[in-house]
């Protein structure tokens, strides 16, 4: 080939090593080359983790532009940094033989901190962070950015850091692997980690043909599987996804992982297929992860990058979070914590004729103190359908239920047998029920079954709305926050508590969490 192949590369020490390796292989085949270093955004912005920059292909974008402008003929990339979908007009021309795929832990003095409760580990990778916290949940992970040499220096300079995590290929290629370093064989690497990729213009058939001469087929097969797995999970730099494929004894071995950012949730998959029958391997493994809850986890990861606009004062389940409108970014936590009281045996020594239970917490308190057979209740009255279901499942038949305590009190005035009732309640119960019954000469024996403790989060920023499930959740939230947006309430009693503070108060059609979510969705459909 008479023309000189212009090799585009980042200008970091590691990127130049990779480009020179490609240059050497091409020149060994008799081709003339020239290195064209280009500085990327990823090299310039060093004060934030990559996953917070919100850009996929941050290390490849500048080289892509240079290629499309025909300033370079090929670009050399660390394949793990390349988006799974290339820009229009640019194609993968080759991958060279893969290096060490592992992540490596570089530590300061010794490895004793691995068995300690508290330790500080540095990494700028969300995948490494999540896997480390999954294995060592009590450790602290701090951010570190920069080239390999600067990161090693930062580790040395920070006295409170115990270790930092690096790609084994990077420190090995630069010949700067410290003695205090161990490969993390348990940590699943980034898809295509340790591999070097060459891109070219799709229209440049001559250059693509030359690059094909140095393509390593085994590396190409394995990295293609890993990157397809990543693509099918819709993951990029902002998702903690690991994948590794390798060929042994004419078989393709694959293992993949998806985690939550904090490492508390993990979905793993592994599969072995004969070489030649591996074409559906990535699809099978991605579908397995999706079926095991991966879709929910990916959705949560995507939502976590957006600003919260709805806050729930009750911790929502994964299934409940999936019910929200696409424009809802919900955060949730329990605004109240329940502490079950010790109830004296004398309370249930004899049969109780009339019993009022207004919450599932009261049911739990009763069953925490007594067996179901000890609870000799003749007539049980409840508030809420879910409380009723729990009572009938674990204690006994419910005579009557209403949607709120006030309605139940009015019913009892007309229908109660006798003039006495035992009420298992919280220390923060409302006055409506006891006041109505007392005015109608019905004696109430109140038993404090549990205590309600306020434990609401302080929520930053303005919200479109807050979801409330009891007057206590309203009170707890307002102790930490100002009223913001719409109060989406589970029932009338809760709405009454929210009304003095929120201009717009809306009540769910039925007293369930799902109905409150439906109320939120109706608002966003109208918005």
From TrEMBL:
Keywords: Porphyrin biosynthesis, Transferase. Residues 222-274 form the Porphobilinogen deaminase C-terminal domain. GO terms for molecular function: hydroxymethylbilane synthase activity. SUPFAM superfamilies: HemD-like (SSF69618), Periplasmic binding protein-like II (SSF53850), Porphobilinogen deaminase (hydroxymethylbilane synthase), C-terminal domain (SSF54782). Its EC number is 2.5.1.61. Pathway: Porphyrin-containing compound metabolism; protoporphyrin-IX biosynthesis; coproporphyrinogen-III from 5-aminolevulinate: step 2/4. InterPro entries: 4pyrrol_syn_uPrphyn_synt_sf, 4pyrrol_synth_uPrphyn_synth, HemC, Porphobilin_deaminase_cofac_BS, Porphobilin_deaminase_N, Porphobilinogen_deaminase_C, Porphobilinogen_deaminase_C_sf. Residues 333-517 form the Tetrapyrrole biosynthesis uroporphyrinogen III synthase domain. Residues 5-208 form the Porphobilinogen deaminase N-terminal domain. It is an enzyme of class 2 (transferase). It catalyses: 4 porphobilinogen + H2O = hydroxymethylbilane + 4 NH4(+). Gene3D superfamilies: 3.40.50.10090, Periplasmic binding protein-like II (3.40.190.10), Porphobilinogen deaminase, C-terminal domain (3.30.160.40). Its cofactor is dipyrromethane. Belongs to the HMBS family. Tetrapolymerization of the monopyrrole PBG into the hydroxymethylbilane pre-uroporphyrinogen in several discrete steps. Monomer. This is Hydroxymethylbilane synthase. It comes from Winogradskyella aquimaris.
């Amino acid at each position: 080939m008479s023309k000189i192949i212009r090799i585009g590369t980042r200008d970091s020490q590691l990127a130049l090593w990779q480009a020179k390796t490609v240059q050497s292989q091409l020149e060994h085949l008799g081709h003339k080359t020239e290195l064209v270093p280009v500085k990327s955004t990823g090299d310039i912005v060093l004060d934030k983790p990559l996953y917070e920059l919100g850009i996929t292909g941050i290390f490849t974008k500048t080289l892509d532009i240079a290629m499309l402008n025909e300033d370079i003929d090929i670009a050399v990339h660390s394949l793990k940094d390349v988006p799974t979908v290339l820009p229009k007009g640019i194609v993968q021309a080759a991958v060279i033989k893969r290096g060490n795929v592992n992540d490596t832990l570089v530590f300061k003095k010794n490895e004793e901190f691995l068995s300690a409760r508290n330790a500080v580990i540095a990494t700028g990778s969300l995948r490494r962070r999540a896997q480390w916290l999954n294995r060592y949940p009590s450790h602290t992970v701090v951010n570190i950015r920069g080239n390999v040499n600067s990161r090693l220096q930062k580790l040395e300079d920070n006295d409170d850091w115990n270790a930092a995590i690096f790609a084994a290929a990077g420190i090995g290629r630069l010949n700067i692997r410290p003695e205090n370093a161990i490969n993390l064989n348990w940590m699943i690497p980034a898809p295509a980690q340790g591999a070097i990729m060459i891109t070219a213009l799709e229209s440049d058939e001559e250059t693509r043909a030359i690059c094909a001469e140095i393509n390593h087929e085994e590396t190409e097969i394995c990295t293609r599987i890993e990157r397809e797995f990543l693509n099918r999970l819709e993951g990029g730099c902002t998702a903690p996804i690991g994948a590794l494929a390798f060929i042994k004894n004419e078989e393709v071995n694959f293992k993949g992982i998806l985690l939550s950012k904090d490492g508390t949730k993990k979905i793993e998959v592994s599969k072995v297929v004969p070489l030649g029958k591996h074409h559906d391997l990535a699809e099978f493994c991605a579908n397995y992860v999706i079926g095991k809850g991966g879709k929910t986890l990916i959705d949560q990861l995507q939502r976590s990058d957006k600003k919260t606009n709805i806050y729930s004062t009750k911790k929502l389940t994964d299934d409940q979070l999936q019910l929200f409108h696409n424009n809802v970014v919900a955060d949730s936590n329990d605004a109240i914590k329940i502490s079950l009281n010790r109830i004296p045996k004398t309370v249930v020594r004899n049969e109780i004729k009339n019993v009022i239970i207004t919450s599932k917490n009261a049911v739990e308190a009763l069953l925490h103190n007594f067996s179901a057979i000890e609870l000799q209740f003749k007539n049980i009255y409840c508030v809420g359908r879910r409380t009723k279901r729990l009572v009938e499942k674990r204690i006994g038949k419910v005579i009557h239920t209403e949607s709120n305590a006030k309605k139940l009190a009015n019913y009892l005035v007309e229908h109660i047998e006798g003039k006495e009732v035992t009420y298992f309640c919280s220390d923060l119960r409302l006055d409506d029920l006891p006041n109505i019954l007392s005015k109608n000469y019905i004696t109430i024996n109140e038993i404090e079954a549990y205590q309600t403790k306020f434990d609401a989060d302080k929520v930053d920023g303005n919200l479109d709305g807050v979801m409330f499930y009891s007057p206590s959740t309203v009170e707890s939230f307002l102790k930490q926050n100002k009223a913001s947006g719409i109060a989406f309430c589970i029932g009338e009693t809760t709405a009454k508590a929210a009304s003095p503070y929120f201009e717009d108060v809306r009540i769910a059609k039925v007293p369930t969490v799902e109905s409150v979510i439906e109320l939120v969705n109706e608002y966003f459909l109208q918005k």
